Structure formats: structure tokens, C-alpha cells
Amino acid sequence: MIVMKVIPWEPIGAISSRLQDGRDVLLWVDGRPVLGKWELELERWTEKNRQAAGGKPYVLPRTSVTHFAEIMPPE
């Protein structure tokens, strides 16, 4: 039997600094889930599989990231 679990979304303001070390984090951005990571040099969230012009990381607007969920391995 397949059991579906609800993703435990938390407000982005409650994120722990340990999740801002460059690891992948699930972000809620403008009404959709996005795989993102914290860019230490930019001090901003970036979208993981998307690039801006010149191959630079695609920076997410601060106000568009509202929630996060830590990525955990299956139980």
C-alpha cells in the first residue's frame, strides 16, 4: 500500500541557519514548489535547475519565497 504524506511546510522566517549552508531545500515560490539552495556569496535563495543570463544562478525574489521544507530521505 502506498501512503501519501503531506509535506511539512514551514514559514521561511522560521528556517534554521543549518539549512542555509548550500544544501538543497524545497521552497514554496509564487504558488509552486521549487528545488532551491541558499547562495552564501549572494545571501539569497536560488532556483536549483535554472540559470540566469551568463550561466549565473537564478536568484529568487525575496518576497516570492514564503515557505520551506527540509528534504529528508525515505523512511
How far apart, in Å, are the first and last alpha carbons? 15 Å
The number of domains is: 1
Uncertain spans, ≥5 residues at pLDDT below 50? none
| 3D shape | globular
Structural category is: mainly beta
Q: How much of the residues is beta strand, in percent?
A: 35-45%
Describe this structure in words.
- 0% of the residues lie in helices and 44% in strands.
- The protein has one domain.
- The chain has strands at 10-11, 24-29, 32-39, 44-51, 57-59, 65-70.
- By secondary structure, the chain is an all-beta fold.
- The chain has a six-stranded antiparallel beta sheet, with no helix packed on it.
- It is built from no helices and six strands.
Q: Key features?
A:
6 strands; single chain; 75 residues; mainly beta
Question: In short, what is this structure?
Answer:
The chain has 75 residues and is mostly beta strands.
Itemize the secondary structure elements and their pairings.
Blueprint: E1 10-11, E2 24-29, E3 32-39, E4 44-51, E5 57-59, E6 65-70
Antiparallel strand pairs: 1-6, 2-3, 2-6, 3-4, 4-5
